[in-house]
Amino acid sequence: MDPLANFGSIGKPIRCDCPGIVEQINRCVSQVVGTARQRKEQVRMATLTFEVSDSLLTRARETAQALNRPLEEVLIGALAVGLPDVQDVPASVRGELLEMTFLNEELLWTIAKDEMASVEQKELQALLDMQQRPLVPQEEVRLQELRESYGKAMLRKARAFALLSLRSGQPLLTALEETE
To answer: What domain range includes position 61?
Structure first.
């Protein structure tokens, strides 16, 4: 199955009265489509046989039916979410993101709702505001530390929400509204 088949007009030329822009967009779309197809062709597949509980298989079948997708595709998608590619994630947070797969919902909600300490938020905002002038080296170092801390926290939150959504079968916002 073509991974881009469900995206409607992706890969089809765009028509408009502004040819210069349209040509650029069409070139970009062709590059994206070509890259996605190349990646698909480069993926090597393996066959696995393992046992799953009846309840898990039932949930997978119901999901496949609701999405009008093959059961195999749903299971592969669930594995991909459960075992994300973390190669481009900072090494200092990779293990933590992978371990989150095995946390219970209560701990995931704690992570999902966690916020940067108020003092750090104010410090980050103050340093960002000070960027109207050149920062002194210590300010630059501290700003970078706070940005990294914030970025890692956002990665954790995103992972927690993704896992909670996957487990509940509900969109992220619906799941969040139910816990408030």
So the answer is: 48-83
